[in-house]
Write a structure and sequence with these properties.
166 residues; alpha/beta; 6-stranded parallel β-sheet; 6 helices
């Protein structure tokens, strides 16, 4: 199965989903689209989705012209409907992790996103957690939720953590 993902990456036929369209997610979605991939950006904030679909950037690092050009080529579109994950091969989760008063990350956004991903998880997918979080979140929180589907990591789907970078 990993060969299939590699082949899709090489052929630029990999379909990418980016969950969370903030200061990391929108630039990441744009970068994937610029590299030739079909990208679906997903956010629960309908205002962000609508603004992005109009080609209006709300992130200083991404120009509206760049965003509009990628939308025009049909390589990039945005939605608030997690059902779009049914049609993607790789999912990057870039949701916020604000600090609590105790200075530890609030992972409620990660948990919510993973529950949505779980509902649309299918064999062959690559799931990448990019949200800033404490060590162990991928193995202790994300993995059990995804494997509760009956699918097994490394066999049926792939899971990785990538430290959030702008």
């Amino acid at each position: 199965m990993d060969r299939s993902l590699r082949e899709k990456i090489s052929a630029r036929s990999l379909r990418v989903g980016v969950v969370g369209l903030g200061y990391v997610g929108l630039p990441l979605a744009t970068t994937f689209a610029e590299a030739g991939f079909q990208v679906t950006g997903i956010d629960i904030d309908q205002q962000k989705v609508d603004q992005a679909n109009r080609g209006e950037s709300y992130i200083p690092d991404i120009s509206s012209g760049t965003l509009q050009a990628l939308i025009d080529t049909k390589r990039l579109h945005f939605t608030n409907d997690y059902a779009a994950l049914d049609d993607v091969d790789a999912i990057s989760i870039c949701v916020p992790t604000p600090l609590r008063k105790t200075r530890d990350p609030d992972i409620s956004y990660i948990i919510s996103a993973i529950q949505q991903v779980r509902a649309h998880l299918h064999p062959g997918q690559l799931i990448v957690l990019e949200s800033t979080t404490y060590p162990g979140t991928t193995d202790e929180v994300v993995l059990p939720e995804l494997e509760s589907t009956g699918l097994k990591v490394g066999v049926d789907f792939f899971l990785a953590f990538s430290p959030e970078r702008i």
